[in-house]
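Researcher: Next sequence.
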Amino acid sequence: MPLLYHWKREQFLVDNQSPLNADALNLSQDSPVLANAAGHRLWAFTRDCGGVYILAASAMVERVERLGSSLGEYTALAKPGSTVKYRLLNPVVDLEPTIRSLSIRTEAGVLGSSFQGNSAVRELTESDDQALEQFASQLKRAAIGFRWKPAGCK
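Model: Next structure:
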């Protein structure tokens, strides 16, 4: 079961500067869906500083630990070498239409509002996974150790 993780922009900017996320995707959340993520692909999306939804990263989850951190009960740790970070393109490629076309419910007017609380991590179908793979194929992959720091973000 592939997963889609909404990475709030503020936390994404903090996490992206952390040495813990330099080469691997390690994400925390209270969602019980994340507790069962081991062995599955995790797609992470966020908003850029202009408010456009973007695909930030993907990885295969090696294991999930129950750390109970301030960011969430569960922490998904990526399989070494599986993390892919995506660079911003100019113009930005908007992920929102793709997410709204997936099988998951996204009825809120503001897409991020559909991913609040335990709904921040969603189970996807294989067809959804393929749609995200197709979307990702048009993006540039970032080099290992890449830290995304857009100008103008606070």
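Model: The CA atoms of residues 105 and 114 lie 7 Å apart. The radius of gyration is 14 Å.
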